[in-house]
Amino acid sequence: MNKAQPLSGLGLAMRAGKLVTGDEIVLKAIRSGEAKLVIVAGDASANTQKKFRDKCGTYKIPLMIGFDRETLGGSVGKPERVVLALIDQGFAEMIRKAILKTSEVEYIE
Question: Any signal peptide, and if so, which residues (predicted)?
Answer without folding.
Answer: none
